[in-house]
Design brief:
Layout: H1 14-20, H2 41-48, H3 61-71, H4 84-95, E1 101-106, H5 111-118, E2 122-127, H6 138-148, E3 152-154
Parallel strand pairs: 1-2, 1-3
């Protein structure tokens, strides 16, 4: 069975490591948001106080209400998700349709383009060049945005992987 049937995500690829003769314990994995130091003590304490035997409310109503009250914004302005990847895909689904244009300042996290492709949007990658130290020419970027007239623009700060 080919590896292409598996979803792409961060984490160690054990098949690749075995083929290279590399022990996984010798690898520091920066491909996902994994804390090599483990959970902070406060998180462990908070987890001990919550019921983890049931799924949370699918609309995260209590969390959204608390965030809206804390930030003094409308409930409809709060979007929560299970990590940044889910939120990226939710944004693409909410704002893009087939053949809409998305503009991505690249190189960046590949999930932005994957989310756009999933909804069949056209993707324009505005690429930073090695010759400029991977800094974008922002005037050229603004011109390209006006020229492309995208429905959604992904500009990340701080950026990944640069």
């Amino acid at each position: 069975m080919g590896t292409s049937v598996y979803p792409v995500h961060g984490g160690l690829n054990l098949v690749e490591l075995r083929s290279l003769g590399v022990d996984p314990s010798d690898v520091l994995d920066f491909s996902a948001s994994i804390n090599p130091l483990g959970l902070p003590h406060g998180v462990v304490e908070a987890m001990a106080k919550v019921d983890i035997t049931t799924y949370p409310d699918r609309q995260c109503l209590k969390l959204r209400e608390a965030l809206a009250a804390h930030l003094n914004v409308e409930l409809a302005q709060i979007l929560v998700g299970n990590g940044s990847t889910e939120l990226i895909h939710l944004l693409a689904r909410a704002y893009l349709s087939k053949d809409d244009r998305a503009f991505i300042f690249a190189p960046t996290f590949g999930e932005y383009e994957a989310a756009c492709m999933k909804v069949e949007a056209a993707v324009y990658n505005f690429k930073a060049k090695e010759a400029t130290g991977f800094h974008w020419d922002l005037d050229a970027g603004l011109s390209a945005i006006q020229e492309q007239d995208p429905r959604l623009v992904f500009l990340c700060n701080p950026n990944n992987p640069t």
